[in-house]
Amino acid sequence: MDDVVIGPVDLAARVDDALAVQAVAFGLADDEIAIRRQIVLRHLHYPGVRALAATAPGDRMVGFVYGMPNSRGHWWSTVVEPYMRQTGHDDWLDDSFTITELHVHPRFQGRGLGRELITAITDTATEPRSILSAIDVESRARRLYRALGYVDLARPVHFPSAASPYAVMGAVLPLLR
């Protein structure tokens, strides 16, 4: 990881680089990338949005994370709120920092970049806790989140047009090290 640097990124200027990482990590088709591009650019207008990137030599983006203080008015919150209410965890939608996206290029996974990205961004949060959603399967991502202190708050959560169910997870900040 010595050759990879993590730091703030102008996500608006580097949105295509970030989506290229997400496309490889998540297996996205071109039409999905186009839709996500508009979503990311819209998110950048929300208050408190922050982004970090992991860059390799030559300024090649190999990972990124972005998030923001949660608002019940955000689309994501309106989808997950009924599931969170069913489990008695809808209070987590208030005073939480949401990890909106976190992706590391597969060739750079297993080096601690995901851990460093998520802990660095949540360390800057003024909210006392963090929430996120992840595909509801056992995966490296879910294991990482658990190791950092995230627990399942609601599952299975079904997002419109998503083929797989998700889990909403939450952790008290600062994250475990």
Structure commentary:
The protein is an alpha+beta fold and 177 residues long. It is built from 5 helices and 7 strands, in the order βααββαβαβαββ. It has helices at 15-26, 30-43, 75-86, 113-123, 140-147; strands at residues 5-8, 50-56, 60-69, 96-104, 129-135, 151-157, 166-172. Strands 1-2-3-4-5-7-6 form a 7-stranded mixed β-sheet. α1 crosses α2. The longest helix has 14 residues, at 30-43. It is globular and about 50 Å long. The two termini are 18 Å apart.
Question: Helix and strand string, N-terminal first?
Answer: EHHEEHEHEHEE
Principal-axis shape: globular
Which whole number gives the mean pLDDT? 97
Radius of gyration: 15 Å
**Quick one: biggest sheet?**
7 strands, mixed
- The number of helical segments is 5
Ranges where pLDDT stays below 50 over 5 or more residues in a row are none
- Widest β-sheet, arrangement of strands: 1-2-3-4-5-7-6
Total strands: 7
